[in-house]
Amino acid sequence: MIKNFKWLALVSLTFVACTSSDDAVSDPNSTDGTPVTAGTADFSKYVALGDSFAAGFSDGALFAEAQKTAYPNILATQFALVGGGEFTTPWMSDNIGGFSSGGYQIPQFGPRLYFDNSTKKPAPVSGISGTDISAHLTGQFSNLGVPGAKSYHLLFDGYAAANPYFGRFASGPSATVLGDALAQSPTFFSLWIGGNDELGYATAGGDASVNPLTPTNIFDQSYNLLMSQLTAGGRKGVIANLPYVTTLPYFYVIKYDQLAQSDLVLDGVSQVGALNAQLYGPLHNALAFLGQGDRINLLSTTGNNPMIMVDETLPNLSTSLAAVLQAGGLSAQTAGYLGQVFGQARQTKPSDLICLGAATRIGQQPNADLDGVTSLSPLLTKLGVTFPLPDRYVLLPTEVDEIKAATDSYNAIIEAAATTYDVAIVNAKDIMTQLTTTGIVDGSYTMTATYIFGNAFSLDGIHPSPKGYALIANKFLQAINAKYGSNLKGVNLGDYRVLFPQDPASF
Length: 507
Fold this sequence. Notes:
The chain has helices at about 50-55, 65-70, 70-80, 160, 165, 175-180, 195-205, 215-230, 270-290, 320-325, 330-340, 370, 395-420, 430-435, 465-485, and strands at about 45-50, 100, 105, 115, 120-125, 145, 190, 235-240, 265, 270, 310, 345, 355, 395, 425, 440, 445. By secondary structure, it is an alpha/beta fold. α3 crosses α15.
């Protein structure tokens, strides 16, 4: 059995930097060339509520330079042209990203990624974040975007303790995001929330035990409570609906047939023959005897190969598979373990969506903390190759449908709220559809959802690049202009980069 494999080169790209040396500058001209006006809106005190998109999360982390290009911060520069006041942000300490504790980087909070031209893959920057997770900022903050926040979290009075991104700037231990927003007596608000209500489940591979979908009734109650208070007294604002998160680049970087021949080589020798003889062949034959031979086929000796994964929708053949393997000559212990491991296993198909989070785990030993599974055999130690990828790394077609249905339900609530509370609305779902199909032309740039080369998304495959955030800000401004009669022109996408440099000191 194969005991070691090199780490898969999952992302191999040739990159041409898309940056601009020019600073982003607000254009004083309006959409129609006349003096700019706020229309019927009052931007003198603007607050932004939302999740990581509002915060400016990018490249897998929150860091200062990315915060500058968060869409609310870009909106605030435009509002300043028509009477908008100071817009404050709870800045991170540096450009390494995430949090540290006691001088050590906390792995689940950064650091940010950069594109390593030597390996043609994303890699984490070196260094330790100067933002200590225990530090607390004082004062009021206009940008209340909280990475990880779901709809109901904005109302939760214990959220400061549960989420360090909010905890570091919350007004107190029992503060709520909504309460801290309203305490500033805002005249205008933006609310884009709900992405994490679906995204957490999607990036967990549809594993509800890791991160469940928010029930529609909870989303409905939370969203309408937020809107009723934010619009009290006739306050104006802008909201946005939700895209299908399963169209994000995050789900299209790793292919179902990711295993290249070069990934199945050890010490210069192909291991395909050994794998077929010792694992794939016996499993295929036993499953074929049970009428399920299409679950696992022999590996090809020439082209790319699919990976092995768990499909919890399949009938569990653990007991019968073990019996057939034992009848074929394996010991009861070995047959029983193989039946347990492969009873609901199959090879990946084109219809499966592989999470980008699996990139550093494919070919690695199963780890209970990282993967939720572990192997009892020293021979079955390579995820996706000799041990099935767990549910948390793969979205099945049925799970994609489930997420789309939830999104449709959330969007019906959001779109009804736009009418009920008489606010501007951005059709983010349509924007994402355009990015994944025809692309969006803004000035001299064509924006698509293609990983890295599409300009719109950062290296984490979920959050926008600075140029992507600028596109979002412009779409928000268009919706505001249409609703309130303002004529703000928006920003030039050419003033915003796609990727950040490796060296945090070179910004």
